Structures
1.
Amino acid sequence: MVQDLHRLKETPSQTAGPYVHIGLTPNFCDIRGVYETDLGTAMVNERTLGERISLRGRIFDGGETVLRDGMVEIWQADAAGFHNSPSELRGTADPNFTGWGRCPTSGEDGIFHFDTIKPGRVPYKDGRWMAPHITLWIVARGINIGLHTRAYFSDEADANAADPLLSRIEHRARVETMIAQREGNIYTIDIHLQGPKETVFLDI
Amino acid sequence: MPTQSNQRPETGAFFARDRAWHAPALTPEYKTSILRSPQRPLLSLDGTISEITGPVFGHSMIGELDNDLIHNYARSGESAIGERIIVHGRVLDENARPVRGALLEFWQANAGGRYRHKKETYLAAIDPNFGGCGRTITDDEGHYAFRTVKPGPYPWPNGVNDWRPAHIHFSVFGHGFAQRLITQMYFEGDPMIWKCPIVQTIPDRAAIEQLIAPLDWGQTIPMDARAFKFDIVLRGRRSTLFENRLEGN
C-alpha cells in the first residue's frame, strides 16, 4: 500500500438538454420577472476601451443542419490583453469590460451574436505571444460535454502564423476552422460539430 | 483542510481532464449525439492564461428569491405545487478544497414533469406559479442551498418509450473558464435512473452514482421540506510551484 492522494473525481458532465434557456437565459425564453436581465448579454459599456467588434456565427451538425437550441459562451482579454479575473496577476483589466458573454443560438436562424471589443494579445505558457483570440464554449442538446474552441481573427495573419496553438494543428487546412472572417466590424465564425469542415475543438 | 488557494489568486493550470470518467461525445443510444459529436481528436492544450482565468460573479447580483424556486415565479401569497425540498451541498475542487464564490444556476421541470418552454409538448400541466430557474453563489466554505419542488419524470422522444428520471440541471462556474461544467442531479432511490439513455452515456457506474443526491434526513426541516445533498467537484489546479516559468518571472 501507498499513501492516499486524497483527490476527488470531477463531477461528470451531462448534456445541457433542450431547455438550457430556462436556466441560463430565462428572459430569452419568456420567463420574465425572475431575473432583471439575462447574464452575459452586455459585455461592454460606453466607457469600454478598445475597438468595437461583433462576433457572430452559427453551429452546424454533421448533417449541415443549423442548431437552433445551442448556447455559446465566450471569454476573452480586454484591449490591453488583461482578463477581468482574480487569477489575472499581470495587470488590471479594464473595469468597464466583463470579458465574458453568453448567447443562445437564435430559434429562427441559429445565429449567435456578441458585441464586444477586439482583445489584446496574451502570452503562451513559454512567454511567446499568442495571436489575439476569443475562447468559445459550446453546449446543446446532444452534446455530452461542453466543447472548447477559439476564434482567431482573419486580419491578424502574421500573428496567427506565429501562434503557438495554431502552429500545433497537424492538418493545416483545419486552421481555417478557428479563424473568424472580418467584414467591416463583424467577425463571423461558423462552428461545425463534425464532417469535412469539423472545427478544431480543444481538450483544455 | 488548507484553503489558501482560494484566499490568494490562483494561477496554476488545471489537472488534465479524465475523459474516461465523462461520457464520450458519441453515444448512439442517445440519438441526438450522433450528428452533434465531434469525430476528430481534440487538440490537447495545457491551460494558458486564457483558460485558467475566468469570470467571477458577486453576491450582490443575486436577488432575494433567486434560490427559492417555490416562490421566485409565484404570484404574491402563492407557491409552486409539489413536494417541497431543499437541495444543498458544497462545491469542491479535485484537491478537496472548497470553491468559494462559485456561481450555480439550476433549472428543472415542474412537479408534473413539464418545463415552461415553448418547445415543450408533454401533456402534463403547466404550474402557473413555477418558472423553473434559480441561482446562487457559494459561501467561503463552498456551501450552497436552494429551495424548490421535486421535479417529475417525463417522457421524451428518443426511443419509443424513453423517460427521463427526475433531475435538476446545474451549470457551474469555478474560478477558471476551463472548469466550466454543466451536469444533472438525480434523486436517491429512483429506479428510472438506470433506464435513462442520457444517464447511460456515462460509462462508469461510480461516475453515475456521483450524480445521485442522497436524502439528507438530518437537514430535513420538520413539517416543511425534505433535504437532498449534492456535492459538486470541479477540476483542481496544480500548485503554482509546479508551473513553468511565467512571463516576467
Note: Chain A has one domain: 23-192.
2.
Amino acid sequence: MGDELKRTVLHGAHLALGAKMVPFSGWEMPVQYGGVIAEHKAVRERAGLFDVSHMGRYAVRGPGAAAFLQSVFTNDVAALKIGQAHYGFLCNERGGVVDDVIIFRRGADAYWAIVNAGNRDKDWQWLDAHRRGPSTGSGRGAVTLRDDSADWSLIALQGPQALAILSQFTSLDFDTIPYYHCADTTVAGHEAFVARTGYTGEDGVEIAVRSEAIADLWTRLVEAGAVPCGLGARDTLRLEAAMALYGHELNDDTNPLEANLKRFIKMEKGEFVGRAALTQSLADGLKRKLVGLAMVDRGIARAGYALQAGGAPAGEVTSGAPAISLNQNIALAYVPVAYSPPGTPLDVLIRDRPARAQVVKTPFYSRKRRET
Amino acid sequence: MPSPADLRYSRDHEWVKLNGHEATIGITDYAQHALGDVVYVEVNAVGKPVVQFEVFGVVESVKAASDLFAPISGKVTAVNEALADNPEWVNAAPYGEGWMIKVSAANLAELDKLMSAADYDAYLTTL
C-alpha cells in the first residue's frame, strides 16, 4: 500500500469511541462513529465535534509577513484587523488553485494559515519558494515560515449549541469574535486559539490547543454533549452549505472565478500571483460555472458523473450526496455558462442512464439565524 | 454475532436463502456495516435475469454507490419495493426486512460455489 498513513494525536480517542477509520489525504481519519446521518443531524440540531488536526497550521511572521501574504493570496490581507480571518486562495500563475486556505491575523506581524491536509507539502513548498523569491529583495521586510501543525492540534465544534457548550470551558465573550474572527484565550485551562469559522454551514468554532492538551479538551467537550463526527458528515454538511472541497470543486487547473468564489478574489488590491491570468479569463469570458443541482428523478449524482442537456454534453458533477437535512439528492457541478441559470433542466448520467436534475440556487441549506 | 446458519454466502457479501427454487437475496451484516447508512437501492426489475457473480443492482450509502452481485442465477420474481421508502432497513435488518430481490433459481448446483455460515464467518476474519 506504499506510505504509512499518518495519525493525529486523537487517533486513540477515535478508536475508543468506536470510529471507523479510513485513509484520507495520507491520514488515517474517522469517517464515522455512530453513522453519517445521525452525526449530520447532531450538527444541524445540537453540536458536533470534529478532529481536523490533519489540516496544516502554518505560521507566517515578521515585518514582511503582510506584504508577502498579500502577494500570494487572493483576498485582501491588508484589510485584516488583528483577530480577523479571510478565506481565499493561493493561486498559481495560470490562475489555478494551489489551495483554498483561511488566513488568520493573530498579531501585528503574525498570521496563521490553515491549509488542506492533502496540500500541506505542496503549500509549504509554494509559500517557501515565494518567500525566497525576487520580491524579497525589493524592500519587503523579513518573513519566517513555521510549521505549527505538530505542536498544535485542531478541532471543530459546530452546531447551534456549540457556543453554549464551549462557554462552560472559557470566559471568552463570543460577541467579541463574530463570524470569521478569532482570539487567543484559555479553554478548559489550556492555552487556546479560538476562531469563529467552520465547514458545516452552522455557527461554531474551530479550536487549537497544544497537542498534549487536545485529548483532554476533546474528552471534556464530548462529556459536555458534543457529538463526535467524522469525515462523512463533514462532507454532507459542507455540501449542503455548497462549500468547495479541494480535489473536487477546486484543483490546480480550476479557475476560482468559475467556482463562484469571486468575492474572495480582490483584483483591485494590487499584484498577486495568478492575478494576470484571472484578469485575462474575465476579459475572455468565463467558459463554465459551478452550480448547484437538485435531482428530480431518483438516484444520486456522484463526483465524475457526466451531465447532458438534450443529449449533448453539458459538464460534470464534482460532488454529490443525499442532502440529509433537506430530504433531497443534491450535487455541485461545472456546467457551460449557458446552462447555469437556476431552473435549467439537465440530465445526470447515472450508470449510463439519464436522470433528470435541475439547476438550483446555492447554498442548498442556510441555517436559521436567531432573531435578536 | 455468527451469520444466520440457514443462508449461503458469497465472497462479495451477498446472502441467498432458498425455499424450493425460490431464492431470496440480500447483503450481509458485514456489508451493511462497511457501507454505512444506506439511502438508495436499485435492482433488476421483475422478469429480468440475474447471473451468478454478476451485477444485479446498486446500493448507495451516503458516501458512495456500490454494485450488488447476484449469489445465484435466475429470473427476478419479486423486488422489495418497501426499500424505496425505507432503505435504512438494509442496515437495521439485513437478513430480514432488508432483503432485496427474489429469483427463481435456475441451477441449484451453483450453491456449491457459495459458503456456509461457518465458512463465511471464517472468511470475514481474514479480511
Note: The mean pLDDT of chain A is 95.
